[in-house]
Design brief:
It is a single chain. With 363 residues, this protein is an alpha/beta fold. The chain has helices spanning 5-15, 23-36, 48-58, 79-83, 102-114, 134-144, 195-205, 228-238, 241-259, 288-300, 328-335, 347-362, and strands at residues 41-45, 66-70, 87-91, 121-125, 148-151, 159-160, 163-164, 171-175, 188-192, 266-267, 274-275, 282-284, 306-307, 323-324, 336-338. The strands form three sheets. An eight-stranded mixed β-sheet has the order 1-9-8-5-4-2-3-14, with helices on both faces. The protein has a four-stranded antiparallel β-sheet with strand order 10-12-15-13. It has a three-stranded antiparallel β-sheet with strand order 7-6-11, with no helix packed on it. The protein binds pyridoxal-5'-phosphate (PLP).
Length: 363
């Protein structure tokens, strides 16, 4: 927490709006809009997963459809496809951004079309806060007229050229889960340029209850709204977003400077067009055995590190699904490690982590 949240929570309690309605919801949505781009509309929700689910529903994804998904991601990007009765088809990453590869995407689209299965949507992810190759992906999407869901769960505070992540897809989503760069403990948001889509999202998130004194429902809805109390936490958090981004970028820069000289350690590269919030600093280690070797040595020093997200095409639950693979995410997963990157990591703590890593490679 930043210290700004409690005043908003107190306000919610004093006004007795402990509900998924109230001034903090309106305030948080407006402040997010102002932060991202005043031409967009934000709908706050109870999770980033709900936001992706609603995005798919708004695009008309339904039973039997196929959706092309970045394989290199956390499973929340993909699970909602199955909630719609649709099938995820996985697409591998490019080596620089670690995100969806334009070449593989185009191969996948052509192949699906040839099989009579034109994809209904593309889910692209700014993994670890690093923007995907937005221009290339959008160009392909426009050529084939397929909408893009921009999963910006990890990338609030990142941008591509002059635009903020969260405003780069046909529909875009955010997460405010506890592990993200700002949090409401649990929460998410859907972002659109189209006021009518926002109205539809609000309706679906509220059990599809129509404006009527009777409890009238014309379609199936969901209970996906955000609480006014949590929106208050979000308003307090949003005040410090830029500080958080700067802290995380500084952490990345120190790791890069201190570890960059160790032979063959690689980092996720920021293209000229990209500005990453560096949500997590991840390193690609020289050998497969280093991943577990270094993780265990760090653990012995009471330092937690974690493997990268295991790609979706490697997940047992998705083992029968088609994927378009070039080896990049397999390589990343086999040799990658996420290093301590929290906004509150002190320099002293970070140098303790760095010295353990240096020792590992010098012995
Ligand atoms: C966290 C996350 C989500 C989902 O967010 P929740 O709010 O936890 O439901 C989606 N995609 C990615 C890449 C994430 O990291």
């Amino acid at each position: 927490m930043s210290g700004h949240e409690r005043a908003f929570i107190n306000q919610a309690f004093e006004s007795n709006w402990i509900a998924p309605y109230g001034e903090h919801i309106d305030g948080f949505e407006l402040e997010l809009t102002t932060y991202l781009n005043p031409n967009y509309f934000v709908t706050t929700l109870n999770s980033g997963t709900s936001a992706i689910h609603l995005a798919l529903l708004l695009l008309g994804v339904t039973n039997g459809d196929e959706v092309l998904c970045q394989t290199n991601t956390f499973i929340a990007s993909v699970n909602p496809v199955t909630y719609c009765g649709a099938t995820p088809i996985f697409v591998d990453s490019e080596p620089d951004s670690w995100n969806i590869c334009p070449k593989q995407l185009e191969i996948a689209i052509s192949d699906r079309i040839k099989l009579g299965k034109a994809p209904k949507a593309i889910i692209a992810v700014h993994l670890y806060g690093m923007p995907y190759n937005v221009d290339e992906i959008n160009k392909i999407a426009e050529t084939y007229k397929i909408p893009v869901i921009e999963d910006s769960a990890e990338a609030l505070g990142s941008s591509y050229k002059t635009k903020k992540c969260g405003t780069l897809g046909t529909l875009s989503t955010l997460s405010f889960n506890g592990n993200k760069i700002i949090t409401t403990s649990a929460g998410g948001a859907l972002i659109t340029k189209d006021i009518q889509l926002k109205q539809k999202a609000v309706l679906l998130a509220n059990q599809a209850r129509e404006h009527s004194t009777e409890y009238l429902h014309n379609q199936i809805g969901y209970n996906y709204r955000m609480s006014n109390v949590l929106a208050g936490i979000g308003r307090g958090q949003l005040q410090v977003i830029q500080k958080r981004v700067e802290a995380r970028r500084a952490i990345y820069n120190i790791y890069k400077e201190e570890l960059g000289s160790i032979e063959e350690i690689e980092f996720q590269n920021e293209a000229e067009s990209s500005y990453s919030n560096r949500w997590l600093t991840c390193v690609l280690l020289p050998k497969v055995s280093d991943k577990e070797g270094l993780r265990l040595l760090l653990e012995q020093h009471n330092i937690e590190s974690k493997p990268l997200w295991k790609p979706m095409h490697q997940q047992p639950v998705f083992k029968n699904l088609k994927s378009y693979i070039n080896g990049v995410s397999d390589k990343l997963f086999s040799r990658g490690l996420c290093l301590p990157s929290g906004s509150n990591l002190t320099q002293e703590e970070q140098f303790r982590v760095i010295s353990v890593i240096k020792n590992y490679f010098s012995s």
